[in-house]
Amino acid sequence: MKKPLIVALAGNPNSGKTTLFNQLTGARQHVGNYPGVTVEKKEGTCLRGNAEFHVVDLPGTYSLTAYSQEERVARNFIIEEKPDVVVDVIDASNLERNLYLAVQLMELGVPVVLAFNMSDVAKARGFQFDLAEMSRLIGAPIVETVGSRGTGLDELVAAAAAAARRPAPPPPAIRYGADLEQAIERLQAKLEGQLPRADARERRWTALKLLENDAEVAGRVASGDVHRLVRAEQERLSALLGDSPEMLIADARYGFISGLCQETVRSTVETRHTASDRIDEIVIHRVWGLPIFLGLMYVVFWLTFTVGTPPMDWIDAAFGWLGVTVSGFWPEGSESLLQSLLVDGVIAGVGGVLIFLPNILLLFLAIAILEDSGYLARAAFIMDRLMHKIGLHGKSFIPMLTGFGCSIPAIMATRTLESRRDRLTTMLVVPLVSCGARLPIYALIIPAFFPEAWRAPMLWIIYVFGIALAILCAKLLRATLFKGESVPFVMELPPYRLPTLKGIWIHMWDRGGAYLKKAGTVILAISVVLWALTSFPKLGSVDESLPAEEQQAAELAHTVAGRIGHALEPLIRPLGFDWRIGTAMIGAFAAKEVFVAQLGIVYSVGEADEESEPLREKLRQNYSPLVGLCIMLFMLISAPCMATIAVTKRESNSWGWALFQLAGLTVLAWLVTFAVYQLGTWLGIGV
Predict the structure, then answer these.
(1) Which residue of 76, 202, 524, 629 lies most exposed, with the fewest beta carbons within 10 A?
(2) How far apart are CA 201 and CA 191, in angstroms?
(3) Per the CATH hierarchy, to which homologous superfamily does domain 5-165 belong?
């Protein structure tokens, strides 16, 4: 049996590359209309006749000069894995920008086929292409495709198979001018000894990359003589031509592309505003853009947390019924360790995960519609100016906005950011945006300590403080750990499109499934650990004359969790907290809202929620309003729930960053709360 041909799909973000991949392989992968959605390599098999192709969907990239991790993944695969053919997917309606990558691929010397995708859109806009002449000039076969309909796929596969069998054609005849060509020739000669196995084409490509200040290519060249020559040539060219070699090389490539298009592209109609342009006149208007965006976000959250409530109640009731049913397998009064593990550990743990699934699915449904329609890119555009002031791009605003609902989907939404620095910065500060799980804590504490006239302002202060702290931390991270220039980034505004049901479904379900499969397993494991901490060791004897609630509190104080609470007391006493609050905080690591129920157990008021008046009375008797404020601040800033830590680990692919988030936010919470409590005590405010 013949070995399958390896076909790499490359192309700019938003060129329709992932749609073609799905059509070729039938793979279930999200198809988005937001630049940078594909952030990792995807693979699939394509069968056409007797031929088999192994198709690799590379991350979207504009250039082979790698600025981001995704661009490095794409380039390194092409250079190191040496696929049999590279299919460069090009948005035919935006030709000049898309051809920049194609020219670089041709210069690299890999077998290339150009897929002029969305050719129907290009024709609708009045473009006509002389494909035969363009193919001759650029030195690569060109096939017109419409990925959403599967048009041109057979021709594309046939062209890819043919290109894989023949030697790569000569690169396009790009001449960079006498001065640049002189520098390239000098570097090529110097590289002969350093790259003995490389042919002339590879040495020329390496010389170009060195002149472009490509750090990764420079790191592969060990010779100090080569690097000194590069610096000398860069200085010579900058002094001679008044610009950096990187800009001069880019200008020459775009000049070649412009000339190619002049020769082979004709416009049959006058240039006029498209429907997308007319819509943008309203939705990204300087005055109306932000109110429209805020209104749409209100609808998204209304959908997520209003429509999602009934299914959440059904799931909660189902797991409650399951817990009662499993408990019924043991006779009354003969509860066992296994029963407690199953009911309080496993069932409660799984239920704690699944109860949030309706929220997550509905949130991703709404985001999928906005993303696939092309609107989400406009939202990022609207917020871009503000986000730049904290060292991030406009697209970082979307995950932060999502964080008001839940930090888990917010961190997952950082996948849309091209730069790893931006992704890490955003996911590390997202938990400072107050999520819905913290609301029960605020709803318990604020009425307990503050008069009615102050309740709404206090809630507003807490939310605004979280946002302000997130901004300050983002600026600090970008100035220290993630210091460096921002990745060159153009805020694209792709044309509006009608989302497909299949695309929306895949987008929604893939992310929801990832939440269940990845975070769910970790949540379940830690739930069992927390069950053990709050269950052992057992108290040998309990005063039977005490009410059941007080017996329960005594048993809790005797457990590992209770003892940890006592051990923590010296550390948290400067914050105004005692062992009871410390014990409740341990449970809150599973889920923030558990803090309320844990306090109810500690204070022997039985089952408690945010509307529990007996618990509020107990809090008023034991703590001051200043301590109440400090509790809210600590729960706002401190380590997020275990699911958030697990998702941070998965999205950053590092336990190091997850633990840094856990420790960093906890330390920050201690410092801020300490400052507020000590200053408030010194000033006599709320004591």
Answers:
(1) 76
(2) 12
(3) P-loop containing nucleotide triphosphate hydrolases (3.40.50.300)
